[in-house]
Amino acid sequence: MKTSTRIPSDIDPLQLSIGEEPMTAPHQRPPSTQAASPDSQAATAAPQQPRLPLTVAPSTRMPPSRGVPTEPLETRIAVRNLEAGYANHKVLKSINMDVPPRSVTAIMGPSGCGKSTFIRCINRLHEETPGAWSRGEVMLDGQDLFHPSIDPVDMRRKIGMVFQRPNPFPTFTIYENVAAGLRLNGWRRGVMLDERVEKSLRRAALWEEVKDRLHTAGTGLSGGQQQRLCIARAIAVEPEILLADEPASALDPVATERVEELLLDLKKDYTILLVTHNIQQAARVADRTAFFLLGDLIEYGPTNDLFTKPKDSRTDAFISGRFG
Amino acid sequence: MTTLNPNVAAVLDQAPSPPPPSALARAAQRNRGDRWFFRVVTAAVWLVPLLVIVFLGVLLVSAWPAMRKFGFGFVLSKSWDANAEGGEAYGALPFIYGTLVSAFFALLLAAPVGIGVATFLSEVVRGKLRSVIAFLLEILATIPSVVYGMWGMFVLAPFIARHAQPQLKIVQTHLDQWFGKGNVPIFQFRGFPNGLGLGTAILVLAVMILPLIVSISLDAMRAVPTSYREAALGLGATRWEMIRIAVLPPARSGIFGACILALGRALGETMAVTMVIGNDSSIHWSFLRQANTISSIIANEYGEAADLKLASLMELALILFVMTLGVNLIARYLTGKLGIKPAVK
Amino acid sequence: MTKHPTNHANYRRWKNRVVQGVMIVMVAICIVPLVALMWTLLSQGLNSVSFAFLTHLPKPPGETGGGLGNAILGSLLILLFAAVFAVPLGLALGIYLTQRDGTRLASFSRMLLDVLSGIPAIIVGVFIYAIVVRKTGFSLHLGFSTLAGSLALAMIMLPIFARATEEALKAIPRTVDEAGLGLGLPRRTVIVRILVRAAMPSILTGLFLALARVGGEAAPLLFTTQRSDFWPSHGVTDLATLKPLLEPVASLPLVIFEYSKSPYEDWKAQAWGASLVLVVLVLAIRLSTKAFTAWRYGGQGTHV
Q: Residue A190 and residue C1: Cβ atoms within 8 Å?
């Protein structure tokens, strides 16, 4: 069974419309073999019904489905009935979602659909805004992050975040930026700190470019470099989850490509949640994609499936560019 | 910005080239009117440099007799005596000392508190509580100098005389024991305390400059983009750590500018200081002794001064002017980097 | 090399709490003098304030029933004429700085306005004495007078007001300017009748805030007005010849200063009453102006 998670580059998802199947052979299976996988059986049984988001019982196995690696997957982050908003305005309406480890899960949707709010709930950054509220559960490895006994400060160390506009601390050098999270956790100056900084910068594909100017200002880099610096800063504390809120939207195409390559590399070690408004980016990078619209999770599944055979007409409309 | 490009303005002021002859007369009249208008406005604007030049001129000319007589030694001389041997002898040192010490220590007291309050208002509280505190600070900022002087004279000074001075006397005896008598006489006092003196002036000045420091530091901190705060929080920083990494460093120059501006204000402050500092034109190292600043000696003695004394007072005014000018220019440079423009000292 | 994780985390939590506690203490330090001051002001001042106090003339010490009517009127008079001098010049400066921005005179004037704003108030008073009040030397020989006091206050007000005017005019969108010119109006009309009028609320706000700021100043008045125990001359011929402008006048800040220095208890009590009146006056102007601006324009305002 084909295990590729990518839509091949000669297919442009935007060109697909309802009912049309891509013509390239590797992604097309004759109906007879579809019966072999239980997931697609359900899909063919009711192709026109709006598909429920993929949920699993808190026990951790997910059925293998087409386009996803066949090894058994655990659920890293389980979101249950998450609602969130600001003051009187509800932005997220009861989201249920499971995120597998060591993968890139894309959250896509038009502006205002709640995707940024969603991701900021995961690391509880949302509640730092005055007037913001949230309800529901976000379970990281089975532990509810909103539980009163959990200190958001501790928890955020395990969840790194990269923001839309690169924001290296302006008065810190490159070295100090990467070391910032570690210094907060008590790391002192020394060889081990240097090593960790280098390791993070290498992993972020920035080392070669900055190794000679580690002690110059972080703001002296180009936009793309600054964003990779922010990624280095985030991974320096070795989080388990990485949240990326439209990390490439402020960057030029070359820098965007580098960031995307980086995410693909990082997913070997981190569980990555990527918010993007760029459909092609989700198609290029993500293993699973969730489509949000006006605070609802409309559809969620392997990227390949979502793009080639969207279950919901709204998903299809969005992918085809009919709105967004 | 609705400014007009000066080149365009210049063109508008001249008769336009292509209009038809029938409209030319009307256009010429309109432009003539505009030209007169701008002439009047420009003439009014020239009053400002004129004013400043006259100001400097008057100051220099009035101070000249003293400058000629005492030379540079004026700045270093401690005497202030109309009846000294060899004629009148005046010097600036006691007043420069009083001005600098009072302003500097007032800043030392007010800056940490001011920055702390500004941080509190910017990062910790929201909504109602913030408005209330900001309102109270607004009131503090509006109270005139003379009223602070009244409070200093009639409330603070007696309080210090009754409650602080006895304790400080004890502290002083300890200091005398550790360092030898008279070596660290910062709280030394003789006679009957009335609470007036350098220390009281420092306290009153500190309260007066506090709202200014809070206000401008708050602006500096609010100007820091939220993104940095979120980056720090995302790394797992506590609130104080977030402030320390993401808010204070970028706001540094603005906060520093706030302090310098407050220093400038404290240097020039007259009424409150005059009312509590006690009018003693000599230098004492003790905070409990009375003193004088440049502005207070001018306030006290200008009314009846003549000739050489008057010239000396004017020279003192010149020195104070140069001091505050220097300080204010530095402050505006520092806050200008942030685009914060304090319209009022 | 790394500290023990849990201990360190606890240390950080503790430090966070301590720092926030310190900040609260600092806020308390701020509030205490204010409360003490307001309390004293109210308790001492209210004793002296009465309708008679506000409307009668002062009496010699020892006699009861003195009042500060002339000082209140005098302060208002000085402020009025300070505005009379400062407003036209401030408007001209505001217009010039927005219309001719970029010329050397514009940058030069801006810098000089900064210089002016840094002159301590007492020195302004001394300067005005030297060129307006003195009856000898290079001066206008006017003697101690309302006019001299107004000039001193105007000189202090000018940088504040000019900056407020400049900001107010800058805030008008360019399209308004162009619309006026497009109608065929000459530039001077556009400026005066359209731009200035549109900016008028902000300009007035700036004016009142500046007045509140200088209304409490005593230092510039020390050597420019003297004291007076009488109402300003108000006979018909006096008004016609502007006599009241040329004679000494009482003002609240100076009365406070003087009475505070006196050895008489009833004068000191009156000084408190005058302080209360002055604070109420200045606060009323400032707070109502700010409230009005916030109500009308929601949030945006000049930082004064």
A: yes
Nearest to C2 among A151, A154, A187 (CB): A187
- For B69-87, write each residue's pLDDT tens digit: 877 777 777 777 766 555 6
In a domain, B214, yes or no: yes
> Where are chain A's structural domains?
74-158+283-324
The one-character DSSP state at B291 is B
Q: Report yes or no: C136 and B42 within 8 Å, Cβ to Cβ.
A: no
Yes or no: say if A117 and A134 are a contact pair by the CB < 8 Å rule.
no
Contacting residues of C for A192, CB less than 8 Å apart: 1-2
Distance (Å) from the C-alpha of residue B237 to the closest C-alpha of chain A? 6
Residue B143 in domain: yes
Binary contact (A165, B227; C-beta < 8 A): yes
Chains that touch A (3 or more CB pairs under 8 A): B, C
Residue in chain B nearest A243 by alpha carbon: B234
Domain with B185 in it: 92-337
Place of tokens 């549109």: C198
Residue B31 domain flag: no
Question: Nearest-CA neighbor of A56 among A89, A30, A80?
Answer: A80
A74-158+283-324 belongs to CATH 3.40.50.300: yes
Distances (CA, A) of C138 to B61, C131, C247, C285: 11, 6, 20, 37
User: How is residue A172 written in tokens?
Assistant: 């810190």
Question: Residue B237: closest CA among chain A residues belongs to which residue?
Answer: A153
pTM over 0.90: no
In-domain check, residue B321:
yes
**Each residue's pLDDT tens digit, B221-256:** 999 999 999 999 988 888 899 999 999 999 998 899
Q: Do C12 and A184 touch (CB under 8 A)?
A: yes
Distance from CA of C87 to the nearest CA of B (A): 12
Alpha carbon distances (Å) from B296 to B201, B279, B319, C122, C275? 11, 8, 14, 9, 20
Burial B9-20 (b: 16+ CB within 10 A, else e): beebeeeeeeee
Stretch A139-158: mean pLDDT, rounded?
Answer: 84
Q: What is the pLDDT of residues C57-70, one digit of tens each?
A: 777 776 666 778 88
Amino acid code (one letter) for B5: N
Per DSSP, the three-state class of C247 is: coil
**Domains of chain C by range and CATH?**
51-297 (1.10.3720.10)
Share of chain B above pLDDT 70, in %: 85
Q: Alpha-carbon distance B124 to B175, whole Å?
A: 40
pLDDT for A17: 36
Task: Tell me how close the Cα of A141 comes to any Cα of chain C, in angstroms.
Answer: 21
In chain A, residues with a C-beta closer than 8 Å to the C-beta of B249 are 169-172
Q: Compare CB distances from C3 to A154, A186, A190 and report the shortest one's residue.
A: A186
Average predicted confidence (pLDDT) for chain C: 85
Chain C residues whose beta carbon lies within 8 Å of the beta carbon of residue B119 = 23
Q: Does A187 touch chain B (CB under 8 A)?
A: no
Q: Touching check for A241 and chain B: CB below 8 Å? A: no
Domain count across chain B: 1
Helices (H), chain B: 6-13, 21-70, 73-76, 93-119, 127-142, 145-151, 157-159, 165-179, 198-222, 226-234, 239-242, 248-268, 271-277, 294-301, 307-336
| Contact residues on chain B for C283, CB-CB shorter than 8 A | 139, 142
Domain of residue B313, CATH code: 1.10.3720.10
Closest Cβ opposite residue B236 in set A157, A163, A230:
A157
